[in-house]
């Protein structure tokens, strides 16, 4: 199950390049790596994804949008947008054991994604973001709460998340979160990711405290 920090690559903002970023992200214990590189050609994506496949031995490697690249490099799965290949078609190509995530901007989209067999939902954009130009209007943490009440699949919150607002996202029920610019632009990428990871650890501690109090 996805839990914690979900890392998405971003070539435009990276200080040291995607390969270095992913190595640091894995050292920080991220729950998954999504390879996204809008600047690269198909050949460049293929070659870079091959390198990442070798690095991500124990961490799930998810390819953004490109089912063909995911299949070619034997990635663990693919993340699709609302305008990408339908989940059922992607499943036929990749097989039943691969991870397929889908972006959802509303409750109806989330419910339909679950119905179609999505393994997780990328709910976005939670807050205003400048990392993705076509992200759309912020949906807020309220949408996370609504989706959690209706859907069983894990939620990965994405868009405009920083250390200042991440706790709100975690408390709303997100199983994982991604904060692209908040980590890839920093000198110590691994250290920044660990700060976000602690928020999930703290949530578990709070839940345990409530459970223990209930025993008295």
From TrEMBL:
Query: Which residues hold 4-amino-2-methyl-5-(diphosphooxymethyl)pyrimidine?
Result: 34-38, 64, 103, 132
User: Could you list the residue ranges forming a coiled coil in this record?
Assistant: none
Enzyme Commission numbers on file: 2.5.1.3
Provide the binding site for Mg(2+). Answer: 65, 84
Q: How is the cofactor bound?
A: Binds 1 Mg(2+) ion per subunit.
Q: Which Pfam families match?
A: TMP-TENI (PF02581)
- Reply yes or no: does the keyword Transferase apply: yes
Classification via SUPFAM superfamilies = Thiamin phosphate synthase
- Would the keyword Magnesium turn up in this protein's UniProt record? yes
Where, by residue number, does 2-[(2R,5Z)-2-carboxy-4-methylthiazol-5(2H)-ylidene]ethyl phosphate bind? 129-131, 160, 180-181
Which keywords are on file for this protein? Magnesium, Metal-binding, Thiamine biosynthesis, Transferase
This protein's GO cellular component annotations are:
cytoplasm
Q: Which Gene Ontology MF annotations are present?
A: magnesium ion binding; thiamine-phosphate diphosphorylase activity
Q: Which domain of life is it from?
A: Bacteria
Signal sequence coordinates: none
Q: Which HAMAP family match?
A: TMP_synthase
Q: What does this protein do?
A: Condenses 4-methyl-5-(beta-hydroxyethyl)thiazole monophosphate (THZ-P) and 2-methyl-4-amino-5-hydroxymethyl pyrimidine pyrophosphate (HMP-PP) to form thiamine monophosphate (TMP).
What is the name attached to this protein's record? Thiamine-phosphate synthase
Which species is listed as the source? Answer: Candidatus Sherwoodlollariibacterium unditelluris
